[in-house]
Amino acid sequence: MSASHSGDLGWRIALGVFLLATIVWLGTTNARAIIGNQLLRPATLTFDDYLAPEAQRELFRLLSITSVVIILSYATALVSGALFLWLMPFSMKEHGWLMVCAILFFIWVPLEGYTLYLDAQMVYEEFFTTVDNRVFRQLFMKRLTALAGAPIIAVLCYYTIVIIAVLQPLRRRAKG
Q1: 74: domain range?
Q2: Alpha helices in 49-176 (DSSP H)
């Protein structure tokens, strides 16, 4: 295999891994939101008093499991996305949409790092300690209210990336 073919294969593999990891990451993020919503009263940030402690504990366990998947898939998406941008043969001048997508993805890395840290705390408490629901409630509320709702804006940006990648605005077309 020639050098150009191996380089061509590298960015394609990185893109494929990025797409797969992103699908898993965003899908699991949505699943976690649905699970977490079961703990709260509708349209509030207060816990549902009628939910049995055993049911709450099971929901916290499910949140911890989904957090493991989110941490691994986000890390994979982050590394493979950076590798794709490094290896790709495309010019950002000609593919402005790709630059916008990269900016929308990488601008949220510090925020994601913080929320993944909070998720890792819940994972640690679930799998390596024997704490009660009170600790999980505190961790859940800290995660839910983290950075005044900025994680929700980040998720909206991630879905905007999908739209931009499909429509590809800011792409220079060949003249002729």
Answers
A1: 3-167
A2: 53-87, 96-106, 109-128, 133-144, 150-167
Quick: pLDDT tens for 114-148.
Answer: 999 999 999 999 999 999 999 999 999 999 998 88
Q: Is residue 174 part of a domain?
A: no
The residues facing 47 across adjacent strands are 40
Q: Which two tokens stand for residue 37?
A: 């919503």
Note the pLDDT of residue 7.
61
Number of domains in the chain: 1
What pTM, to 2 d.p., does this model score? 0.91
CB burial class (10 A; 0-12, 13-18, 19+) of residue 148? exposed
d(CA 124, CA 33) in angstroms, rounded, equals 20
Bridge partners for 40 per DSSP: 47
Instruction: Report the C-alpha gap between 7 and 12 in whole angstroms.
Output: 9
Question: Within 10 A of 3 (CB to CB), how many other CB atoms are there?
Answer: 7
